Amino acid sequence: MTVARGQHLIGKQFGSCVLEQVLGYGGSSAVFLAQQHDPERKVAVKVFLPRQNMDRQMLREYYDRFLHEAEVASSLDHPHILPIYAYGEQDGLPYIIMPHMSGGTLAQYISKRGALSLQETHWYLAQIAQALEYTHEQGWVHCDVKPANILLDDEGHAMLSDFGISRKLATRQQVTDLERDGNSEMLMGTPDYISPEQAMGRVVDGRSDVYSLGITLFYVLTEQLPFKADSTIALALLHIHEEPPLPGMIRKDVKPAVDEVIKKALEKAPEERFQNVEHLSEAFAAALAVKARRVARRSTPSRSTPSRSTPSRRHGRQSGTFLRGSKRSHRGLLLGGTLLVLLLVSTVISLSGVLMTYWPSASLASPRLTGGKTPQATLTQVSDLFAERTQWPLSQSFFFDTTGAQYHIVNTSPQEVPLISLYQRRNFDDFRLDISMQEVRNSAPNDGGDFYGVILRSDAAQSHYYLFEVLTSDIGQYIFLRYDSTASQKWTSLASGLAPMLRTGMGNENKLRIDAQGNSFSIAINGHSLGDPIKDQSSDAATAPKSGQIGLYVEEQGMEVAFSHLQVTASTETSQVS
């Protein structure tokens, strides 16, 4: 039966869902927005709609593929794979009930917004790489990775969808038998994104998805495809034989390190590519970090420890050395000397073993969107710390604006000497902290950006504390450190990484939440968790501060940051500062 774009299905019930409007079309299906009644929620319903020109064999193949998609996706459980709520058949038409992803597809997002920034690209790449890595671990190859099969919600979450042509990973014996017999498989996949081995009908494994993900990267960075041809066969031959252009030829801010990652992902021979998608994601993240890596001196912050009436400052005495990440003389992502050598003298290769040591979660990738395991505690006393203005340093460098809504810190100290402002009234041990931060002025025009953030559990002398800081210019980054003025190495890096959920650029507000429970810290930026709790498990963690003052931190001379909505919810009675 021929179906005219499915409009006649509006108002009909499929399972517990009533179809309301058409959202889009596939080759042999339509996706509808629907109202589900058990439970009550908006969902998407994909309905098989046979095309007029399909013969009986083609109809059977597409029908089987539709059911195959439902069965495979139902067997997979991952936060970045679109789940299947239910599937069945209604009046001879199979259907699949799925979550409604209000952001549409990544392809639609790019058609409206244009090519993605490097930060956005890594943000989505990390999520889809996690989904594909899980898919491969479960014994499946997706075989159709492309922007149209990546769905988005309104908060930046991405989900991989459409497993209609996914294949079971072949055993070694099956591969040997196929090669011996000279058999080939039917060409399936989207020609623009198909891997050379797919195009030749050979047995595929996860490295085929690496290639398709590489084409996807090329497209989202340039809004162009690397190969164009008038026919499917001609396009397949280009994938098999032609070297692709590099994004850096099209877009000036794509540096050679990023080009090298794309080039390696698009190697013709599978053994020459990244051997899994996580390696691709990690290498892309490392290539972005290359852009801003410098070695710099780290100065002890200038202290602000005023009396109740008169603000004052004392300059610190100690300094330390470590990597920093802005364009001038800033800290990088603390990736380690081994990685730095690799990045400087070779093309980007698999870096998981090096990077995993320094990242708080199991893979480099972007911070995961699923919430980390927040320590459970009974949080009681809620305090608005900015409501008590007299408990903060007040001077030309530390002041509330005319509305009283924002507390500003202007760093007028000597260059490379950060400023710290501590809340004077009480100490906190375990707590939840919420704060909004806004960079008002940068330290220098065209600078790569400056770090600023929050001090946790500081003693009154500022000799021991934790520091969480962010960089909101250039590439969004974060770093979590412990400072001990009595140690031979005063700064200990606990975690660091790219933070694409940060709203970069001057004047943009970022919301930070930190749950501190013992030596465990769960951190979220703009509602997105950085992953599992960061634990202070360094060799000298026994001397780490267990309680102390909360404060604010601004790093560079000439930088101004406005802080607001500082709410602290303490889980135990807090002590007064003596």
From TrEMBL:
EC numbers, comma separated: 2.7.11.1
Membrane-spanning residues: 333-359
Cited SUPFAM superfamilies: Protein kinase-like (PK-like)
Protein kinase domain location: 17-285
GO MF: ATP binding; protein serine/threonine kinase activity
One Pfam family hit: Pkinase
Keyword line: ATP-binding, Kinase, Membrane, Nucleotide-binding, Serine/threonine-protein kinase, Transferase, Transmembrane, Transmembrane helix
Bias kind Low complexity: ranges: 298-310
Protein name (Swiss-Prot/TrEMBL): non-specific serine/threonine protein kinase
Organism: Ktedonospora formicarum
